């Protein structure tokens, strides 16, 4: 029995030695080239097979930034709308003869453009080799407080449908959020925002440029509270803001409601 145990232990020790030898071999293979001992000059020997500096394998050439491929006038299939298609869709949706009858968020002629999206194909069109390309363009007209949507066929350059709705408030665009911030900064109720900005930066806040703002719709009574001046929200275009100093801290402006239609500022609660 003692003899058998010695034989068994001998196998274990031999197996452990082999495992250690294998581990050492793997470590020798996987060590980085500069992990060896330094020679007498203080430098480290180059790894076997690695090209020495100054030979064929010098530093890689600098990267080259290639220009984006030229964009065609018309996409195919479900390709995103090209820049040319976006321009054509907006021109078809809003002829120049009608632009003077509407106003954007700053009061200039022409409605405020919100979105331009590619329209899904009908089931019958999905199997066509060259299906038509359609776009749906949406606007908000501040002169009549109306939401306008127009579907245009970019293949035939025609307007297929147009719709005008009142009391519908889609998410605001970036320009609307910036204009809301401008109104809030200039209003007496914006004193807290101006003070917070000065406390954070040491500078006066005179306009929206130093801020990053995101707007979300406030629908007034549809949300359960519409005190005083906010009673028209929902019919008017009213938004609240998430406000952040660019490369800086957040400033809480969520209690303020900016009525972009009436160009007034009120406070909730």
Automatic annotation (TrEMBL):
Keyword Oxidoreductase attributed: no
Metal-binding recorded as keyword: no
Region (Disordered): 36-114
Domain of life the protein comes from: Bacteria
UniProt keywords, alphabetically: Signal
A GO BP annotation: amine metabolic process
Compositional bias (Basic and acidic residues): 75-90
Skewed-composition ranges (Low complexity): 36-54
Any GO MF annotation of the entry: copper ion binding
InterPro entries registered for this protein in UniProt: Cu_amine_oxidase_N-reg
Signal peptide start and end residues: 1-27
Name recorded for this polypeptide: Tat pathway signal sequence domain protein
Taxonomic lineage: Bacteria, Bacillati, Actinomycetota, Actinomycetes, Kitasatosporales
């Amino acid at each position: 029995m003692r003899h058998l145990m010695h034989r068994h232990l001998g196998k274990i020790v031999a197996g452990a030695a082999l495992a250690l030898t294998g581990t050492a071999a793997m470590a020798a293979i996987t060590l980085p080239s500069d992990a060896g001992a330094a020679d007498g000059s203080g430098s480290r020997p180059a790894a076997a097979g690695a090209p020495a500096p100054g030979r064929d394998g010098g530093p890689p050439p600098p990267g080259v930034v290639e220009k984006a491929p030229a964009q065609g006038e018309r996409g195919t299939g479900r390709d995103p709308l090209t820049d040319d298609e976006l321009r054509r869709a907006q021109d078809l949706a809003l002829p120049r003869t009608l632009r003077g009858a509407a106003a954007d968020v700053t009061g200039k002629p022409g409605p405020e453009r919100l979105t331009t999206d590619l329209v899904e194909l009908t089931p019958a069109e999905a199997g066509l080799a060259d299906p038509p390309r359609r776009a749906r363009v949406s606007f908000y007209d501040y002169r009549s407080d109306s939401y306008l949507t127009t579907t245009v066929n970019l293949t035939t350059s025609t307007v297929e449908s147009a719709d005008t709705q009142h009391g519908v408030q889609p998410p605001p665009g970036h320009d609307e959020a910036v204009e809301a911030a401008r109104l809030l900064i200039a209003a007496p109720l914006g004193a807290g925002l101006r003070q917070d900005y000065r406390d954070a930066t040491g500078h006066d806040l005179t306009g929206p440029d130093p801020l990053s703002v995101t707007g979300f719709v406030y629908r007034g009574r549809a949300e359960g509270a519409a005190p005083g001046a906010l009673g028209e929200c929902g019919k008017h275009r009213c938004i609240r803001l998430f406000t952040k100093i660019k490369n800086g801290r957040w400033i809480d402006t969520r209690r303020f409601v900016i009525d972009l239609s009436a160009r007034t500022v009120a406070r909730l609660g």
